[in-house]
Structures are given as C-alpha cells and as structure tokens.
Design a protein that fits this description.
The structure is a single chain. This protein is of the alpha/beta class. The protein folds into two domains: 134 residues, Alpha-Beta Complex (Aspartate Aminotransferase, domain 1); 221 residues, 3-Layer(aba) Sandwich (Aspartate Aminotransferase, domain 2), CATH 3.40.640. Helices cover 42% and strands 14% of the residues. β5, α8 and β6 form a beta-alpha-beta unit. The N and C termini lie far apart (47 Å). It binds pyridoxal-5'-phosphate. The site of pyridoxal-5'-phosphate (PLP) has 13 residues, from α5. Pyridoxal-5'-phosphate binds next to α5.
C-alpha cells in the first residue's frame, strides 16, 4: 500500500478534465458533442512556427539547455514583454518553463510557506488554489460574482481579505473563466494594497493579447511594483501553441534565482526545440496579425452566444477578452448539470464550481458560430436553458 501525502489528498483533479474526459468518451463512442469545455483556441499553430519547430529539430536542438532557458528565448521573451506590454525586463529576469502553468507552480512554491494565505479572485482559474494547497498555503477568496465579475467594485473586499498571513495576491486579467478585463482603477487598487502591505503579486497576463476593446496596463509597470511582481505569460494562447508547453515568468532576479532552484530540480529545463520555436514566435512573427485574427473571431462568437442567451432571457456578463463566457444556470449541482448537458444535449461546458462560482457554467468560444448556435439550440431543446 502506498500512504499518500496529505497535500495531495487536499486537492481534486482539475474539474475541466472531468468534463473533457466524458466528452472524449462519448465522442469515441460515435456521439456528436459540441465541446465548449476546453481552454484552447481552435486555431492551428501558424505554419511558419511549425516550420521553425521542424528546423530546430533538424538543427539538432534535442539536448538539455541551460535550466532557465536558451539565451535567445529569454531575450525574445523580455523584448516581447517590453515592446508589446510596456514592461522593462532583461533576459536575466526570465525563466522559460513548460507552460505558464509550471511558471505559476514554481512561483507559488517559491513564495508560499505552510500557513501562508494567498488572495485569489473568484471566479478564479481552477489551478491557483490547488497550487497554493500543494505549497501548504490557504487561498482566501474575494468574490467578484456580485459585481458582474469586475474587480473595481470589490476593492474594499480585497482590503478586508488581507491579514498578517497574506503572502501573495494572484491577479489574472483577462480572466479565465469570466473573460473580464480589469480596469485601470482596479489595477491601481491592487498596486496600492500591495505596496501598503508589502505583498508580492502574481500578474497572470497569459490572455493579454486577446483583449477585445479596452486597453489594460501591466501590473509590474506601476510605481513600486516591479520588485514585487511576477509576470506570467507564454505562447499557448496567443500563438495557439498549447501542446508545445512553453511559458515563462518575468520577475526581479531575486525571484528568478529562487524560483530557478525549483525549476532546475523539477523539470531541468523546457524542451529544447520548443524553446527555439517559441523564440521564433515571439520575435519573428506578426503578433498583431495572429492575435488580431483570433480576437476578431472570438469577439464575433462572444456576440453570437451572448445574444442567443439574451433572446432566451438569460443575461450574461459580457466578456471583454480571452475566449470564455460564464453563463448562469438554475441548478444546485453544476457538475451534474454539466454531465447531463454532455450526455443529453451533446454540449461540453465546465461547472462553475471549478472556478469557485457554483451556479454558473463556463463556455469556451472554441467552435464555429454555427456550432455555437447549434449548442445553444440543443441546450434549449433539452430544457437546460
Ligand atoms: C489563467 C491561466 N493562466 C495560465 C494558464 C497556463 O497556460 P499554459 O500552461 O498552457 O501556458 C492557463 C491555461 O489555461 C490559464 O487559463
């Protein structure tokens, strides 16, 4: 018998996978499922990036690399953040990781001690809290649901959430799962709080290229924030490279030095030829064109879905970026609702409880407008809407 560690018992498998596993099972059995449960763009990786990947393989880039990443990638990531997001990082500030998720995991491991508290905003991406628990910490939630998922009206609640045990705030905008983009005043509020209480902040900006209309600052730019901010980004969403598994953290060098220890003792380094492909994506492609096309597609699908639900009397807080929509449902058990929706309506959605907001489900806008229309029809026909 294996006696499992308490910290592993304390977390559940990622809920989105519960639904996507069910979708895969039913699809394999021949059912036509419209799968809006997955968190990845339904767009092919741009051909030049695929070609650059092949070139990297042909060029023999198949060995270990320096743990923090090849110099070319660290430079490209820093330049990308500086040029596009107005930040001010050098290659020494960057650690390249297998996905932004690993950069977040390493960051939480680096900052959070057992008993520490970490503030997250609900609805929250489903992996932050498990990461905190695996580090022995405790997540303290600030609920944005009463404010249509906006942070600015909840800044007082954020103040109240701080205690002497608070070690970290995790900010994510555009938000997975609500698609909200936090206002500049909200960013300023987080800045003031972090500086007043001497807190570290993670700013997960992985969807920053996919903001539809308004602009959004980067947190590390604010006065007093560079030294206390870990910026997370990567190539998964912007370049539709989820399976490459390549992300990065950018942070002051005292953080990258400490996090680099966790990195080198866990993954050694990100995959060599993938790092070359990511360096190419970040420095040699037309990001405006790639992300611009995606953004336009997601915005149209957002409008379609929001309008179709509005026609059926369901009001949806309108997402401002990324490719997610939170939909209110009338059920006490959103997991069961989602399982039934897959089986009976053939539509894959993720239960809100995965994000700390039961009573909602998340749709990813990762199928065509026609299929999204068909999904809403199916849900309505089967009595889910
Ligand atoms: C909010 C957020 N942060 C980070 C990630 C990690 O992405 P990846 O590990 O593919 O870079 C995701 C992926 O879904 C996400 O939604």
């Amino acid at each position: 018998m294996i006696d499992f560690a308490e910290r592993v018992d304390a977390v559940e498998p990622a809920a989105p996978f519960v639904i996507s596993n069910l979708v895969s099972e039913l699809t394999a059995a021949g059912h036509d499922i419209i799968d809006l449960s997955v968190g990845q763009p339904d767009v092919e990786t741009p051909t030049p990036i695929v070609e650059a990947t092949k070139d990297a393989l042909d060029g023999g880039h198949t060995t270990y690399t320096p743990s923090d990443g090849i110099p070319k990638l660290r430079r490209a990531a820093a330049d990308y953040l500086n040029d596009r997001h107005g930040l001010d990082y050098g290659p020494e500030n960057v650690v390249a990781t297998p996905g932004g998720k690993q950069a977040l995991f390493e960051t939480v491991q680096t900052i959070v001690d057992p008993g520490d508290e970490v503030i997250v905003f609900e609805p929250t991406w489903s992996s932050y809290e498990p990461m905190v628990k695996l580090a022995g910490g405790e997540a303290v939630r600030v609920d944005l649901a009463p404010h249509d998922f906006h942070l600015e009206p909840a800044l007082d609640d954020l103040q109240e959430a701080v205690s002497e045990d608070t070690a970290l705030v995790i900010l994510n905008s555009p938000v997975n799962p609500s698609g909200m983009v936090f206002s500049e005043a909200a960013f300023r509020g987080v800045r003031d709080l972090a500086v007043d209480h001497d807190l570290a902040v993670v700013s997960d900006e992985i969807y920053k290229e996919l903001i539809f209309e308004k602009d959004q600052p980067s947190l590390a730019n604010y006065d007093g924030m560079f030294d206390r901010t870990v910026t997370i980004n990567g190539v998964s969403k912007t370049f539709s490279m989820t399976g490459y598994r390549l992300g990065f953290m950018a942070a002051p060098t005292d953080h990258t030095t400490q996090a680099g220890k966790v990195h080198s003792h866990s993954v050694s380094c990100a995959t060599n030829f993938v790092q070359h492909a990511a360096a190419y994506a970040l420095s040699e492609t037309d990001v405006d064109a790639i992300a611009g096309d995606m953004k336009e597609t997601f915005r149209r699908r957002r409008d379609t879905l929001v309008d179709l639900f509005a026609e059926r009397g369901v009001d949806i807080p309108v997402p401002e970026g990324a490719f997610y929509v939170m939909i209110p449902i009338e059920s006490d058990d959103d997991m069961q609702w989602c399982k039934d929706a897959v089986r009976e309506a053939g539509v894959g959605l993720v239960p809100g409880r995965a994000f700390g907001t039961p009573g909602w489900v998340r749709a990813s806008l990762v199928d065509t407008e026609e299929r999204i229309e068909a999904a809403v029809d199916r849900l309505a026909t089967e009595g889910f809407v």
